[in-house]
Amino acid sequence: MVGGGQGEQGTEQEVRHILEHSNLMSSGGSGLTITTRGFQFLLLERSTQVWFFIINYLQVVTAERGFNLLECLSYLFQLSFSTLGKDYSREGMTECQEGLLQHLRMFGLVYQRKVEEEEEENEDGRGEWGEKENTEVKL
Question: Region Disordered: start and end of each range (predicted)?
């Protein structure tokens, strides 16, 4: 999760920051190293790990980015009651919800895909597919 590729540098930085904030890893002269707390974290059940990570993520984004904690929690609860595999529109989402959604997608907790709409005819008669982004919840 921490040693990702170049294309995921933004995600890697976010994850590193959260791991350091939660004292799961510490940075030193030789890079990031796992702490005792981090090792204990690895022994927890996956669902406990996810919630621990989300709680620490919320602490970071509310303190450092000004996200509204109540709005974030409300959106997380809304996602938790969503149906797996069903597409949900992003229309009407607030800036905070959109930011939270994009972070959850980067962390691999929400799946987002492009959905093909009805085929439209362009001027030269060839078909062109319109695309709109929906969110498929994967928790």
Answer: 116-139
Whether the CB-CB separation of 80 and 50 falls below 8 Å is answered with no
Task: Determine the Cα–Cα distance for residues 35 and 21; give it in Å rounded to an integer.
Answer: 12
Q: Above 90 in pLDDT, residue 121?
A: no
Cα→Cα distances 79→15, 71, 113, Å = 21, 12, 16
DSSP class of 1: -
**Separation of alpha carbons 88 and 138, rounded Å:** 11
Global pTM value: 0.70
Cα–Cα distance for residue pair 101/139, rounded to 1 Å: 12
pLDDT in tens, 39-71: 999 999 999 999 999 999 999 999 998 999 999
Residue 116's SS3 state is: strand
Exposed, middle or buried: residue 71 (CB in 10 Å: 0-12, 13-18, 19+)? middle
Let me know whether 72 and 137 are in one domain: yes
Give domain status of residue 2, yes or no.
Answer: no
Domain extent at residue 104: 68-116+128-139
State whether 84 and 136 are in the same domain.
yes
